[in-house]
Write a structure and sequence with these properties.
The complex is a heterodimer of chains A (122) and B (160).
Chain A (H helix, E strand, L loop, with lengths): L1 E5 L3 H13 L4 E5 L2 H11 L3 E4 L8 H10 L6 E5 L4 H10 L3 E4 L4 H16 L1
Chain B lengths: L5 H16 L4 E2 L3 E3 L8 E9 L1 E9 L1 H12 L8 H19 L7 E3 L3 E4 L13 E8 L2 E11 L9
Helix pairs in contact in B: 1-3
Classes of the chains: A alpha/beta (122), B alpha+beta (160).
């Protein structure tokens, strides 16, 4: 399973990497913002993406819209401090499959990942 | 400044530190910050705009910040390490995001964080907005959350 982590914080990407590695996922690619992610998805072909919202250069919501416009179907989990209901709705409308609000526990992120992959597989 | 804006930051800092670091935070009585009041060595700063505007600063003595970053990243990093500022910036990002989510009925955007590192520096916000200092105590040491925000004219009234 190829998973792309899109977050401008290296700390946050490292935390996510640790959780994913514990879950047995080791094929990971990192991007520091939406633009960086767009430049890498073609070569990496992610099967799951964890995407932050607030990032420089291109925010996560814009990235999700562009990613979907290109016809990509890989599931996306938004992992963000944006906790308002209106933001969650906006993200889902843009093509996000699941949502995790920072701060999160390793258990919560693991649960959301499993839930998202199970939904896609169903 | 509307005092109802302080409680969301108290709740949020406790939630972030408890959830991400398993580090309980005790809050002392918030107080007005006066220009020239001593600051700390490491400050993570984030801007708010929209219906609420201003800035939020998470401010630490170096030793406290290094202990907190060590727990957060799982690695001992001194303040000069390139990843140290990233970690402190992510903390203020989560604290501010968690607080703004409690500003019911308001559209608020937060900026990407900036981090200042330097012994006993001062952080000055807008002159026309009062700054409130929320003293925090943890097993890693004392730190402050400094909130200097106000409701933008024309924004819906606070319902916190």
């Amino acid at each position: 399973m190829k998973i792309m982590l899109v977050d401008d914080s290296k700390t946050m990407r490292n935390i996510q990497k640790g959780i994913l590695t514990q879950l047995g996922y080791t094929e990971l690619e990192e991007a520091s913002d939406g633009l960086d992610a767009l430049s890498k998805v073609g070569a990496f072909q992610p099967e799951l993406l964890l995407v932050d919202w607030n990032m420089p250069n291109m925010d996560g919501l814009t990235f999700v819209k562009k990613f979907r416009e290109q016809g990509n179907k890989a599931p996306i989990i938004m992992v963000t401090t944006e906790a308002e209901k209106s933001r969650v709705v906006e993200a889902i409308k843009a093509g996000v499959n699941n949502y995790v609000v920072k701060p999160f526990t390793p258990d919560l992120l693991s649960e959301r990942i499993k839930e998202t992959l199970a939904r896609v597989a169903a | 400044m509307d005092q109802s804006y302080i409680i969301p930051f108290v709740k949020s800092v406790q939630n972030v530190f408890e959830t991400m670091l398993q580090l309980p935070v005790q809050i002392s009585q918030p107080e007005l910050k006066h220009p020239g009041d001593s600051s700390h060595d490491v400050s993570a700063i984030i801007g708010m705009s929209g219906d609420v505007e201003g800035s939020v600063v998470l401010s630490f003595p170096t030793a406290t910040a290094e202990r907190i970053v060590a727990i957060f990243t799982g690695t001992e990093l001194d303040a000069s390490h390139e990843d140290f500022a990233d970690a402190v910036g992510e903390l203020v990002n989560m604290v501010s995001g968690g607080a703004k989510a409690q500003f019911t009925g308001k559209e608020v955007t937060i900026s990407c964080p900036s981090v200042v590192i330097g012994s006993s520096h001062q952080v000055y916000g807008r002159k026309d907005v009062v700054a409130i200092c929320i003293p925090c105590e943890s097993d890693c040491g004392q730190f402050n959350v400094e909130v200097s925000i106000r409701q933008e004219s024309g924004a819906p009234a606070s319902s916190n």
